[in-house]
Amino acid sequence: MPSFSRVVCLRHAEAEINVQRRFSSEIPGTPLTDLGREQATATGQALVDEGVAHVYSSPLLRALQTAEIVGAALDREVSVIHGLREVGLGSREGTPGTNTEFFLHPAFQAWIHGDDLSQSFEGGETGTQVVERMRESLDMIADRHPDSTAAMVSHGGCLIAGLLHLCVNLGYTDVVRGVPGNGTAIVLERREGVWSCLSWPTVVHH
């Protein structure tokens, strides 16, 4: 039988930057809130029976703390992959902004709706750069865990943009219907080199 790899992709739990309503993609970033720690603990407990072999994380503090809490619940080690970091925001770094404003930014809309990956936030990464590093990171995880399951913790922007362009069965309508909340899971499978989405928040693919 062809080998497959399953990856449970988690958006980091609530962090101080979410409460402050500011854009942030630079290392180290802010830590989790008390609620975020509770969310991460609940996420880890929910994955206990999923057979997760290893946990990977973005280098940003909010993702790494989430991964460490999840890893402790699963008794699994955590490794950092820099390609899982949030979308580089350029001059928007540290400025006030909400998740909705991020989602509706013309560059982000061009990536997910207009399919123009050449656009970028002001002085930040292009969509092409984000998608390619997410592809490399996920392929690395899958290569390390053939016929098994791994988990990774990343960020809303790169999860939406990256997975929309990597998974053959995800479309714009799917991501609009279920933007990943803090601590929520997206389940992917790579089979014969092709990525597909098994579950997205509020959407289940068969």
Write the layout of secondary structure elements.
Layout: E1 4-11, H1 16-20, H2 34-46, E2 52-57, H3 61-74, E3 78-80, H4 99-104, H5 106-114, H6 127-144, E4 149-154, H7 156-166, H8 172-177, E5 185-191, E6 194-200, E7 203-204
Helix pairs in contact: 2-3, 6-7
Describe this structure in words.
The chain starts with a strand and ends with a strand. A hairpin with a 2-residue loop joins strand 6 (194-200) and strand 7. The radius of gyration is 16 Å and the shape is globular. A 7-stranded mixed sheet has the order 3-2-4-1-5-6-7, sandwiched between helices. The mean pLDDT is 90. The protein has one domain: Phosphoglycerate mutase-like (Rossmann fold), CATH 3.40.50.1240. Helix 2 packs across helix 3 (61-74). The longest helix has 18 residues, at 127-144. The chain has helices spanning 16-20, 34-46, 61-74, 99-104, 106-114, 127-144, 156-166, 172-177; strands spanning 4-11, 52-57, 78-80, 149-154, 185-191, 194-200, 203-204. By secondary structure, it is α/β, with parallel strands linked by helices.
Outline the low-pLDDT stretches. none
> What summary fits the major beta sheet?
7 strands, mixed
Radius of gyration: 16 Å
Cα end-to-end separation: 20 Å
Q: In terms of structural class, how would the helical and strand content be classed?
A: alpha/beta
Q: What integer is the average pLDDT?
A: 90
**Tally of discrete structural domains:** 1
The shape is globular
User: What do we call the CATH topology?
Assistant: Rossmann fold
CATH class, anyone?
Alpha Beta
Query: Secondary-structure element sequence?
Result: EHHEHEHHHEHHEEE
* Spatial strand arrangement across the major sheet: 3-2-4-1-5-6-7
The helical percent reads 25-40%
| Separate helix tally | 8
**Tally of strands:** 7
CATH superfamily grouping:
Phosphoglycerate mutase-like
Strand content: 15-25%
Give the name of the CATH architecture: 3-Layer(aba) Sandwich
